[in-house]
Write a structure and sequence with these properties.
Layout lengths: L7 H11 L7 E4 L2 H9 L3 E4 L3 H9 L7
Parallel strand pairs: 1-2
Amino acid sequence: MGIKKPTPQIFNTTLLKLGVENNEAVFVDDGKKNIEKAKELGMNGIVFESMVQLKSELEKFGVKSI
């Protein structure tokens, strides 16, 4: 797309293409700066540390398995 994270446009364009609202999205990244920007834009965010941690965090959002 020619846009780098954490530029708001990349998040907004992706949400539009997916057809979801900001508060419905869970953004996963290993960069805390990117997660903070996603949260500023009203998204949910998870800083990836491990698969076990990610699965646990996603369960909090109602995701049963990945």
